[in-house]
From TrEMBL:
TPR repeats lie at residues 24-57, 93-126, 161-194, 195-228. SMART domains: TPR. It holds the Pfam family TPR_8. InterPro entries: TPR-like_helical_dom_sf, TPR_rpt, Ycf3/AcsC/BcsC/TPR_MFPF. Gene3D superfamilies: Tetratricopeptide repeat domain. Keywords: Repeat, TPR repeat. This is Tetratricopeptide repeat protein.
Amino acid sequence: MDTHHFRKSSGNGSSNVIAMNFDAAYFFERGVRFLQRNDLNKALKAFRKTVEYEPNNPVNYCNLAGVYSEMGDFEASNELLEHVLCDLDPNMTECQFYLANNYANMGEYDTAEEYVLRYLDADPNGEYADDAEEMLSVLLDEFGGGRAFEKWQEEKRKLDAQQATKDGRYFLENGQFEAAVEWLESVIEEEPENYAAYNNLCLAYYYTGQHDKALSLADDVLHRQPDNIHALCNRAILVKHFGWRDALDAAAEPLRKVFPLHYDLAMKVGTTLGIIGYHADALETFRRLIRLTTPAEPVLIHATAAAAANCRNWSVAERFWQMLARETDYQAVADHYLQRVAEARKDDTTTLRVSYQLDLPVEEQLAVVKDKLKDTKLEAWRRDPLLRASLYWGLRHGNHETRRRVIRALAVVADEDAEKALRLFVGRPDIDETLRLHAVVALKRIGARGSVRLVAADGEREVSIEQIDPDVIFDLNPSWRDVWVRTEEWLHKEHLQRLVPEAKRLWLTYLYDMFLHVHRRIGKADIWVAGLIYITLRYFGVPVVQRELAEEFVVAASSIRKCSARLEQSLLTSGI
């Protein structure tokens, strides 16, 4: 801090010394006053002084950059803002927004678009988020932008997909529950603090019928994070599943008291309350969320109507299903439930139990098909035309999990009709890529020949089934691919490249056989790599000691024996 002295004469001939303390704060206040008077030149001088006094304070540079911007010297402003981001504080995300403003004023709209997207990426809920979204909208609509936005969206999709795979959401959302279990067990072994993976593994255990494991996992998370909403929801559903009525109120209590501001969390809380039977609390949660969400999404509208109907609040249920009926894609769902409400109004004793999931009403009829897929020997589908009809109906109208089971069943049936149904299915434009991949693998499994029409995001094309690489099955589960990649690397390292095709044929044979068995799964990848190497070497006359492989891969020799026996059995009984 500098101190300047000014002398002032007094009437008696003596003088007083007045000390004036000049620092960055002093010049900042002066700069603000000059800005209020719109005296930009003096404001510029004042803010330059703040930089001189505090050359390492990024805020001073931002203020000075703001004055340059007001004066129309956008290049000077940009230079200061880049200096802040590159040399002083890369976390000052607002500089990205200021740069976007400057470049927009300079007419460099593509660059402005890039900076506004950087800001939204770095601070989506920041101080200028609303202004940034409005600026992006103007850049796209009025200045013909979009190139940076398209690139940003593509990168975001890739990152979302990577994260969805890492925490298991990809498998859960696509009904690949067995794959989710395998994948997430390995994730939490490597990342014991990954609570998203723990919660998703809890759901995967639940969906695969491993309810005790699911409950133990939920309790484990809550022991470490008592307020973890996902774990609280998972545990409440499990308590309901086990029928522990005395414990249900305690499990529901924290969910009845909380209202997360994050949309997805609030939806999960509301849906969980509905599933465990606290319909009035679910209705309150959904109605609060509706007030905060504009426009309300169809799934939220239906959930609100379902909660109201489950509370026998017919007028509210009707109002929301009438709102849903205005959505073309969901008009049939809304009309179905409006009809059920109309029937319930006529009979005062009627109690509706409506699912909180926004599914077509035909899912209720599919319950019979689902049970048959679980309990009936799949060979029966070949002999019973009524069961066969139900199978095809499930393929057309079922939810993701039902369709996946039907595809496996058709691979077992493996006759001309089954093949035709699968060919038609892969050509449908309204199915997701995971189900399309399951159907392609099923066609490969039954030995289908000729071309098939595939519909993808980039258009429609004819593909020869024979030319589709058999290792397309690896895309169903990253663990399956991992086993093969590690096996191939080992064979190359040991200069046994000649055995790579044989090892791959054996692994694919086993996977295509396993594809038909919905409950069969592989465990620790190290065991399968060792087992695949062992059976390959033994079959092709390369000396191998099981104990040495066990030591190299840090697994039990007995595990390698069991694994190699399963691979050998598959080799003897199956083929692709």
